[in-house]
């Protein structure tokens, strides 16, 4: 063996150029380490999902003839740290003269691997993960000297560059963005196809985690693990989405419903973030389908989907790498409250929160609007410290890796970055939740009441937030209308709302 090639748990890209040829002198290393299970309090399905996918990936490489070393968490020689294991291997294999690493997507991992690489006397080479459409430095490269970036300009540039959904240099349908056509509530009797769920037996991994006392949250059925753990299954999930869900994706993207936990969403984020699927193949598969089925899938649906992947996902990563490490400590509103206990139990009388949290604990999944406009909105309105909010989102979701979780949480959802990512805070009273879901119909609270015993907490907390932060919000043009509405309110009306909010905040754990 003359070289080692490290593959991290989120680098399961079977099409990577590393694997094009078999090199018997190169040992490919994958490892399960406590350093990675313990940096956050993860959902058990997240840890199991990563380990199962890594094991299958290692197996596939091995079957294809590559030399692979897989270090299990319970291996007695495991030092439980990526770099310590690499050092240990170099000691055992003195013939190794070269280590190959792929650029990690997370800052934390980048730091420890860079530091390790610098200490080595042998050659360490860095490679791209060959996954994203853009480089980490894309904002700097495309908009030199600027520090203010709009997702829309970024997205249009990628559309032009890739040619996706373009006709003769013009966007299809003459529009870059079909968002306005896309915000529908689910009709009462709408048919929603059941989500495609796998049924893996993962009892061995669960038993290993229990024995190693890895601390996790959430539920798992070890005999029926539902997430894809191979590239073939990821492609099956993609096919299912394209055939059954894409036609309604954009239309019901913002909808929420008590009976459907994933509606028309793709549930592809785990496969994408582990790199079992590439963003290019996902959008190309969707676009090809749309081209052949224009009667079923209209332009608004396909554009809505493509924008999530080549727009939002790439932009989020670009923001992360442009602003780290400072981004992770931003706290624009200086919020400091604790996260209410029901984020970990779903035991709350607020139906929207109970449903969103319950399914997060059960499936390690909630869709975007549940994350943004229910759990995120409530945390922001209640003044929860962004560190607490981040820790929760980083732990609970199967797709949570810091590069994508942090800008979405701190930036988009909590506005802790002061507007780097979003142009205004994503806050709403109960009326938005009522407009987009059927949650309020079966809630203990009354969405139409602003004050009183059963008043929906979102209502008074919303105005309390506006009052508390009006100074900072005045600088934001997009908040002008709302601030005017607040200013014009009767003083006694204002005081009643603020009193109600203070009462709720004083008993936040028992709402
Ligand atoms: P769909 O709704 O079907 O969308 C398709 C794909 O588009 C997703 O798989 C995803 O890859 C991409 N996408 C859509 N929106 C975004 C976005 N805002 N940022 C990045 N990619 C996007 N996404 C994660 O992958 N990991 C996270 O840790 C994460 N944390 C979030 C935290 C908060 C507070 C919020 C508001 C959003 C977060 N998101 C995160 C973004 C988004 O909610 C998820 O990507 C999406 O819900 C995953 O489910 P899906 O595959 O069914 O997505
Ligand atoms: Fe949520 Fe308020 Fe509606 Fe209840 S009434 S579901 S708390 S928005």
Automatic annotation (TrEMBL):
Gene Ontology molecular function: lyase activity
Signal peptide stretch: none
InterPro entries for the chain: Crypto/Photolyase_FAD-like_sf, PhrB-like, Rossmann-like_a/b/a_fold, UV-DNA_repair_photolyase
Gene3D superfamilies: 1.25.40.80, Deoxyribodipyrimidine photolyase-related (1.10.10.1710), DNA Cyclobutane Dipyrimidine Photolyase, subunit A, domain 3 (1.10.579.10), HUPs (3.40.50.620)
Keyword terms of this UniProt record: Lyase
Domain of life: Bacteria
Protein name: Deoxyribodipyrimidine photolyase-related protein
Species of provenance: Pseudidiomarina maritima
